[in-house]
Every structure is written in C-alpha cells, then in structure tokens.
Amino acid sequence: MMEIKLKLFNYDKAKPRLYQETIAATAVRRNTLVVLPTGLGKTLIAALVAAYRLQKYPTSKVLILAPTRPLCAQHQKTFQSLLKIEPESVVLVTGKIRPMNRVKLYEKAKVLISTPQCIRNDVERNLLSLRDFSLVCFDEAHRCVKNYDYTHIARMYLQQSSFPLILGLTAS
User: Which site in 56, 77, 98, 154 is 20 to 30 Å from 30, CA atoms measured?
Assistant: First the structure.
C-alpha cells in the first residue's frame, strides 16, 4: 500500500484498488516491470508512481513513452485527469511537431508523453536532456528488445538522469 497520500494524484477521479497501490508502492522504490492483463489499470499504476516521483522530486519531470500516436494521445488525457497538475503541463510530443517547436514544449512539460522514436532522435540531437526526469515509463514494454528505441532511451536515461527510475508496463 502507498505509505503516504499522494497530493498530486486525483483520488476524486479514480480510486486505486489495493493491488494497484501495492504494485505502485514497489515501483516507487525500484525499477519495475508490471505485467497485468488489459483493463486492470496499468496506466493508473503509472499515474500513482508519477505522482509520487513528482512529489518527491518537485523540480523533476516524468516521461511516458508509448509506441503509437493514438496511445500517446490516450495517455495524455488520462494523465491530465489523474494528476493534480496544470493540464497544459501534460504535454504530447510526436514527430509531427517541428523540432524547434518540440523544444518549447519540452521546457513547459511536467509530464512528457511521446513516441520513442521522437525522444530518441531529440536526445541524440541534444534537443532534449533526460537529466531532470525522475521517471520513465515504457508502455508496451515487451517491445523493449534488441534495437527498438526503448532500449536506447533506457540506456541514455540511466546515464543522464540525476534520479532515475524505470517503470515498464505490458499485458504480455
């Protein structure tokens, strides 16, 4: 169970179940892979962990990665609803946005949601640093093999972040 009530989680929008709180309590302490069937609230667990990390590291940011633009857009709506932060600070960035415009979005983001290709390219081009991110969440983490962008982002994140924590989510 979460030891503390999270000030940044919107309990009015969702009441976490005990198993979700228990998993989140583990995930705030160590890198974690959450394997749960579809519909059991993996994204809610990610929001709990994000709220905890933003509360623990108030100047930090959270990065949520998903393999498709529609899934990223879905995550943006969910995190805007579940987190008690300015909705405008939950930012969706994809390759359809010009690089210089993405840099402006990176600056205002508290929660950055993106496709892995976009983030990998921008980190490699020095348009984005992962230093101030306190959590990276890899949705559909089963894709994190071989040469997939998730693998490269995880390596860069562990090298750059001042306080790294990785959360993987998958149904398989």
Answer: 77
Q: In one letter, which amino acid is 165?
A: L
Please check the confidence at residue 1 and state whether its pLDDT lies above 50. no
Q: Which residues of 53-64 are buried (b: 16+ CB within 10 A; e: fewer)?
A: bbbebeebbbbb
Specify the pLDDT at position 144. Answer: 72
- Confidence at 120, pLDDT banded by 50, 70, 90: very high
| C-beta separation of 54 from 133 below 8 A | no
Helix 99-108 and helix 116-124: axis angle, to 10°?
A: 100
Round to whole Å and give the CA distance between 23 and 114. Answer: 24
Q: Rounded to the nearest 5 degrees, what angle is found at the Cα of 10, between the Cα atoms of 6 and 12?
A: 125
pTM: predicted TM-score of the whole model, two decimal places: 0.95
Q: Residue 112's CB: how many other CB atoms inside 10 A? A: 24
Question: CA dist 68 to 18, 32, 64, 126, Å?
Answer: 30, 22, 12, 23
